[in-house]
């Protein structure tokens, strides 16, 4: 064997080694009821995970404990999306089973949670063990805002990913975080909850009336993150499919390079935390349906660019 062939062989062997030791994280996204016969997941959440290098599996809204036990053993992370549903028992069961087994000495137990908009609110309701931590009446639909950071926020894992992009400065200087909520959490209620002592409030914002709300948080030690705003929209929603508006944008979504960058940073954080839990997804022995793309059709609808739907 000459040295060129030898080098090529070595490169091939190295490639095989590298690819076989790099598991693609698989995260679950809980679907929400669409109507009496179907549940859906907006495709933007699936694509947001894919952007960070992961794949997605559906967690049905009405999953029972047996199904959730199977899912949690196969998933590297969980994403709770936006929407308008009450906090379901399935989310509470999954959260408490995973979080009560967290062990900082054992990375395989540290399945991350991320909540966006309603999902952020669910996480705070579960973590505070108080559904009333949520207030209503905020005037914060359809508005993109620069973040107001707390001291903890400037140092947070969420906003200090890689030292290449200064996400904190980017998010201070640009109106890129899209808010779309009437419910929310007052900073004072967050601070008053003893159960949230180990969570850091990272940023706040003011609604159109000057009323302040919590716009992001993370747990001090565990991989639990929430954004009241929508990082997935800048890259994957255009707010342009409302037929009554002649296809002109109806949501104030920023698609600037700053918006696209911060969205990627947050996705990459979630997926890198998920990857640390190790290879898990095993459709053959679990009997779970595989990745969303491989199995399900896409439905175009009015309030999202596209959604995946399932008959229930
Ligand atoms: C629910 O929505 C799905 C997807 O649009 C549709 O196929 C189905 O007919 C709807 N069901 C009802 C009861 O409206
Ligand atoms: C959960 O649902 C499955 C059907 O998907 C059923 O076989 C199982 O008995 C249910 N388990 C519980 C604890 O209700
Ligand atoms: C940008 O954010 C500021 C708050 O810092 C807000 O007053 C303003 O309306 C926002 N502009 C747009 C175009 O959303
Ligand atoms: C959302 O905000 C954009 C920009 O301010 C505006 O053009 C659009 O009409 C708004 N949409 C709704 C539904 O209010």
UniProtKB/TrEMBL annotation:
InterPro entries to which the protein is assigned, alphabetical: Class_I_gatase-like, GATASE, Pept_C26_g-glut_hydrolase
Top-level division of the source organism's lineage: Eukaryota
GO BP, one annotated term: tetrahydrofolylpolyglutamate metabolic process
Residues spanning the signal sequence: 1-23
EC id: 3.4.19.9
Keywords: Hydrolase, Signal
Keyword Iron: no
Top enzyme category: hydrolase
UniProt key word Hydrolase: yes
Record-annotated Glutamine amidotransferase domain positions: 58-239
Pfam family, one: GATase
Catalytic site positions: 117, 230
Name of the featured protein: folate gamma-glutamyl hydrolase
Organism: Triparma laevis f. longispina
